[in-house]
Structures are given as structure tokens and as C-alpha cells.
Write a structure and sequence with these properties.
Layout: E1 2-5, H1 16-19, E2 23-25, H2 26-59, H3 64-67, H4 70-96, E3 105-106, H5 113-117, H6 125-155, H7 162-190, H8 199-220, H9 224-242
Parallel strand pairs: 1-3
Antiparallel strand pairs: 1-2
Helix pairs in contact: 2-4, 2-6, 2-7, 4-6, 6-7, 7-8
Length: 243
């Protein structure tokens, strides 16, 4: 079975830009689905690990090297990937054996759960609930845990010096920005019944492509040298335009 894309936003692969094809085999679609949720699920848990790392660094700085020793870091990294793998396997298993009927065209630029569920020839209520529980509720729970953890961190800043508060706010600010950019679109897409909206494609592009591209910039803004260089370049451009 082949699946065709009806979206005009982006083709499936870079090669599609040259050949103009927007079709994908069922096995390739399932592989794409598994890969998407593997990396996004692992990224969700990695953000949680990063929040714990920041909590230890800011709230327990003298014990940081003892708590976050190499073995613990490796364990947390492995658990993040295992969590992403389990999440992806569950998502794949809920849809792999379902019966599909024509015309097998999805209004999206990638294989995702809700667009694929629209092609199923049977009742998808139970499957939709499973997708919501495995995707939406996990995103919401992790997002709330992250907000609580950063709230605890910000509350503890009163015990730090002025310089310590400034560095902690810069670090937490960059992390919170990355968290919001990823989780808000993800929650909007998955915390609802199995329905699709036109805006889903734009939001999917944002949290799967734009957010990872913005992350290096977001995390680099706390670097004084980089911030100073960007300000200097900005002033130079303004002066050149004025002249």
C-alpha cells in the first residue's frame, strides 16, 4: 500500500524536490512514524533531565559533582532513549495492524498518527484515546513537571548572590524558552480527540524543524561573548543603513 501526501508545504524527502513525488510505501511510512516519535519522545525526556541538572547545579552547587557523576549522567541519557523508544513502539503498535482504505491520501507533509487515523476503515475511538494517553498526556505531564521544577529553581534564587541570580536566570530563561517552543505546539496537536486541523501542518513544522534549529541560538544567548558580538553586529548594520 502506498500513501500520498496532499500537503503543499514540504515534500517527504530532499530528493522529492527534484523528482516531484509525494508518495511513500506503507513500510516507509511506519518507519518514518517510528523515527519521528523516537527522537521527539527522547527529546521530551532529555528536557526533563536537563531541568534536573539545572536544579542540582543551582540549588545544590556544592554537591553537583557528587550527584551528577558520570554514571548518573549516562543512566539518565539511556533512560531518556529507552523512554522515547517505548513511546515510539506503543504509537506504532496502535496503528500498524489497522485496516486502511482508499484513497490513502493524507493532508500533511509527514506520516503522523492523527492524519493516518483518518484513513482507517474502522472505529478509531479507542485508538485515539491510546494516542492521546501515550502522546498528549505524556507531553502535558512532562511540561507541568518542567514548569514546577523551574518554579522551584526560581524560588531558590533568593538565596544566591546578585551575580548568581543573573547567571541562573540566563540559564533557566534559555531552557524555558526551548521548552515552551516545543511543548505548546505538541500539546495543541495531541491533547484532543483524533481530529486534524489545517494549522497542524504549520505547528508540526515549527516543533519538528524550527525549534531544533532555534535551540543553538536560544542556548547561546546566555553566552556573553556571543551576545556582545551580536549587539556589535546589530549596531554596525544600523549605522550602515543610516549612512
Amino acid at each position: 500500500m502506498d500513501i500520498a501526501y496532499s500537503s503543499s508545504i514540504t515534500p517527504r524527502l530532499i530528493s522529492d524536490l527534484f523528482f516531484g513525488e509525494k508518495t511513500i510505501t506503507f513500510k516507509s511510512c511506519m518507519t518514518q512514524l517510528f523515527t519521528e516519535h523516537l527522537f521527539s519522545g527522547s527529546g521530551v525526556f532529555l528536557l526533563l533531565v536537563m531541568a534536573y541538572d539545572r536544579y542540582v547545579a543551582i540549588c545544590k552547587p556544592l554537591h553537583y559533582l557528587v550527584i551528577m557523576r558520570q554514571r548518573v549522567c549516562v543512566l539518565l541519557l539511556v533512560l531518556s532513549w529507552v523512554g522515547g523508544f517505548l513511546h515510539s513502539v506503543i504509537q506504532l503498535s496502535t496503528i500498524y495492524g489497522l485496516p486502511f482504505c482508499g484513497p490513502n491520501v493524507i493532508d500533511h507533509f509527514m506520516c503522523d498518527m492523527y492524519p493516518l487515523l483518518k484513513l482507517v476503515c474502522t472505529d478509531t475511538y479507542i485508538v485515539g484515546v491510546l494516542v492521546l494517553a501515550n502522546g498528549g498526556l505524556i507531553c502535558t505531564a512532562v511540561f507541568l513537571l518542567l514548569l514546577i521544577s523551574y518554579g522551584v529553581i526560581l524560588h531558590s534564587l533568593k538565596n544566591l548572590s546578585q551575580e548568581g541570580r543573573r547567571k541562573a536566570l540566563q540559564t533557566c530563561g534559555s531552557h524555558i524558552t526551548a521548552v515552551v517552543c516545543f511543548f505548546v505546539p505538541c500539546i495543541f496537536i495531541y491533547v484532543r480527540p483524533a481530529k486534524t486541523f489545517y494549522i497542524d501542518k504549520s505547528l508540526s513544522v515549527f516543533y519538528t524543524v524550527m525549534t531544533p534549529m532555534l535551540n543553538p541560538l536560544i542556548y547561546s544567548l546566555r553566552n556573553f561573548e556571543l551576545t556582545y558580538a551580536m549587539r556589535k553586529l546589530w549596531k554596525r548594520n544600523i549605522i550602515s543603513h543610516i549612512k
